[in-house]
Amino acid sequence: MAHRLLVRRIWTLSAKDIRCLPASAGASSFSTSSLQSAATRASFLSPSRSLTRSLPNTCRREVSFNVQDHEDFTVRVINSDLPVLVDFHAQWCGPCKILGPRLEKAIAKQKGRVAMAKVDIDDHTDLAIEYGVSAVPTVIAIRGGDVVDHFVGIKDDDELDSFVGKVIGQ
User: What does the pLDDT read at residue 58?
Assistant: First the structure.
């Protein structure tokens, strides 16, 4: 039982946690034959050098982000150079859980020409009230600080692609 708990703890440690362990952490109270050293576990959990070298170094903008507060909303949405789709959602909302990934997929197809902000109405009721959100999911398109379009409810992939295209001017 104790061995199983120890193995589970080792697997759940992040690479950062392991790097913070002293060099003798794995060997001080356990036999080295049953456990690997902390350095070996760290190299096992962190990406391999050959993998990181083979991946191109590309700077990628996030497709979507969670709004942290009203100031964050102003900086990242209102003052954005890109059009931003604001997804007002709630954790308890079933249709929101379906629409979110669909919307992210439609935005990802635009390859950086539009951004998506996610606003949890339970955490940010002030923003929901300010933008007249009375039902979720509600998606509001903002360009240059102004609301240019919106919809309420769930939409299929083709309707979302059309909505996003209209917002960016396609």
Answer: 42
Each residue's pLDDT tens digit, 119-131:
999 999 999 999 9
Residue 96 bears catalytic tag: yes
Residue 59 bears catalytic tag: no
The CB-based long-range contact list for 3-8 (8 Å cut-off, 24+ gap) reads 3/34, 6/30, 6/35
Mean pLDDT for each 10-residue chunk of the chain (170 residues)? 48 43 42 43 45 43 85 96 97 96 94 96 96 97 96 96 92
* Sign of the dihedral through C-alpha 98, 64, 115, 90: positive
Strand partners, 118: 66, 87
The sheet that has 64-66: what strands, in order across it?
Answer: 64-66, 115-120, 84-89, 138-143, 146-152
Which of these is catalytic: 18, 35, 63, 96? 96
Of 42, 67, 84, 93, the active-site residue reads 93
Q: What is the DSSP string of 121-152?
A: TTT-HHHHHHTT--SSSEEEEEETTEEEEEEE
